């Protein structure tokens, strides 16, 4: 690779001309030319390289080619990428010394330095004192029979407390005898689609948790993806492309992970489809309490309790460690669900159920949710402000809600940014990880960033590290 030079008087990412002639891919040629320039001293330590877009335009290559090359050279130690500083030649650039070859892949023995993965609340914010007080009160008030074999439907104290809370906070219409306690949404899926309650095919959103699809596949359920847009799932496809579906799994309050709510007209259309088809909607209300720009929209279940299975849990509002969730069922499904669950409670701890009932009735749950709603809103605002200042080419999409945000990336950059983040000790997910394998809607490059996971004192450093691996323009 010949003839590389950089204007060393302007160490701010000025013109960088590279000859990419020769055998191999453009990416390999670019990496070789940059290594040669560093090795020979033509790119001195600390030199700032041009942004992806500028160098790609100069060389006549795709932007993701430059992004991938930069990410690989950062991983190899030739370059560094830090927030506010762009991509630069490392102070001690070059291959590692003998005996210190880095492991291939992003795995790290002690885990990531900055955890921005979606799906978990701030563990340091668990209300220990209030929960302990609720637990003591619940144990003292519990009848003796509560410590015998558990009722698979769940403790009546919790079902009564949920009836009041869900009606008040989420607009759910139910009675205690239509609620079945479970250990979370995944457990609910296993019960509902074990072959005795519901059968496929099942319409699902084109983006969602792969873990949930794996549960359904293991149960022999075919999933049919629905296209998404800014108004949520295009439920009109239930009458066309997904017309074979017997049920539809939706996240209407806050689509996971893309972040849009299901439009009011589509909510009504989904219920109308279920009525006409004698079908069912499975409503995953995974973070319905956390809407920051206005009051949360009520549950779809309120439109027709006989056509919607409403599923919720405390995994986002309190902690996934509690393993407590609930299904609000059409009356005709209660017996089948209880039978599928088994004769004895094998999942949800009875003392934990009693404690949650007290936590709800005492108002401690409402106080905790309000407190966390304010905290997470502040974190989301900090994320938006940091991106506007340090990575203005990266937009936050979706509504102001939930425990994560989707960052829209320039086309073709997702894979390289995720790789660079992993090498930089930042744990996060690319949007592609959540795409249904049969989805037909256009691909969008993005990151799914969980702003709820770090503790308060760690969040600022996590934001700095995130901005350091994002495309600067």
Distance between the termini: 28 Å
The major β-sheet equals:
7 strands, mixed
Q: Return the structural class.
A: alpha/beta
Number of strands: 19
Specify the overall morphology. Answer: elongated
Low-confidence stretches: 1-13, 93-109
The percentage of residues in β strands lies in: 5-15%
Mean pLDDT: 88
Gyration radius over CA? 26 Å
- Give the neighbour order of strands across the main sheet: 6-14-13-12-11-7-8
What does this structure look like?
With 473 residues, the chain is of the alpha/beta class. It is built from 13 helices and 19 strands. The chain has helices at residues 26-39, 52-59, 63-76, 128-141, 156-170, 185-192, 210-218, 264-277, 334-341, 350-361, 364-390, 414-423, 456-469, and strands at 5-6, 16-17, 79-82, 86-89, 114-115, 179-182, 202-205, 223-226, 228-229, 232-233, 247-250, 280-284, 308-313, 325-328, 395-397, 404-408, 426-427, 429-430, 446-450. Helix 8 (264-277) links the parallel strand 11 (247-250) and strand 12. It is elongated and about 80 Å long. Mean pLDDT is 88; it is low at 1-13 and 93-109.
């Amino acid at each position: 690779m010949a003839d590389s030079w950089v204007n060393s008087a302007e160490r701010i990412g000025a013109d960088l001309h590279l000859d990419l002639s020769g055998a191999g891919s453009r990416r390999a040629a670019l990496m070789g030319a940059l290594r040669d320039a560093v090795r020979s001293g033509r790119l001195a330590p600390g030199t700032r390289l041009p942004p992806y877009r500028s160098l790609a335009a100069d060389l006549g290559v795709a932007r993701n080619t430059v992004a991938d090359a930069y990410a690989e050279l950062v991983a190899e130690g030739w370059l560094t990428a830090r927030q506010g500083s762009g991509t630069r030649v490392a102070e001690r650039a070059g291959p590692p010394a003998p005996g210190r070859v880095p492991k291939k892949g992003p795995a790290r023995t002690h885990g990531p330095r900055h955890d921005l993965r979606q799906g978990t609340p701030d563990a340091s914010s668990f209300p220990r004192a209030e929960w302990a007080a609720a637990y003591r009160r619940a144990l003292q008030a519990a009848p003796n029979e509560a410590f015998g074999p558990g009722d698979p439907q769940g403790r009546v104290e919790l079902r009564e407390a949920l009836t009041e809370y869900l009606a008040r906070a989420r607009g759910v219409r139910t009675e205690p005898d239509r609620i079945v306690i479970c250990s979370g949404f995944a457990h609910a899926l296993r019960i509902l689609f074990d072959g005795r309650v519901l059968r496929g095919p099942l319409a699902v959103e084109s983006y969602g948790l792969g873990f949930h699809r794996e549960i359904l596949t293991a149960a022999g359920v075919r999933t049919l993806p629905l296209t998404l847009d800014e108004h949520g799932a295009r439920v009109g496809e239930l009458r066309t492309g997904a017309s074979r579906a017997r049920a539809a799994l939706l996240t209407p309050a806050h689509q996971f992970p893309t972040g849009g709510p299901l439009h009011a007209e589509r909510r009504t259309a989904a219920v109308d489809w279920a009525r006409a088809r004698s079908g069912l909607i499975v409503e995953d209300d995974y973070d319905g309490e956390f809407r920051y720009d206005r009051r949360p929209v009520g549950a779809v279940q309120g439109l027709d309790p006989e056509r919607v299975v409403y599923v919720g849990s405390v995994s986002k509002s309190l902690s996934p460690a509690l393993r407590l969730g609930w299904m609000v069922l059409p009356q005709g499904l209660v017996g089948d669900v209880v039978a599928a669950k088994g004769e004895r409670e094998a999942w949800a701890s009875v003392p934990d159920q009693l404690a949650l009932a007290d936590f709800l009735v005492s108002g401690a749950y409402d106080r905790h949710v309000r407190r966390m709603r304010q905290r997470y809103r502040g974190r989301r605002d900090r994320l938006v402000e940091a991106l506007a200042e340090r990575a203005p080419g990266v937009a936050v999409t979706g509504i102001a809600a939930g425990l994560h945000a989707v960052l829209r990336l320039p086309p073709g950059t997702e894979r390289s940014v995720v790789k660079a983040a992993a090498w930089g000790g930042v744990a996060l997910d690319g949007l592609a990880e959540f795409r249904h394998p049969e989805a037909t809607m256009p691909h969008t490059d993005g990151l799914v960033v969980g702003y709820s996971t770090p503790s308060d004192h760690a969040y600022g450093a996590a934001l700095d590290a995130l901005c350091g691996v994002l495309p600067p323009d």
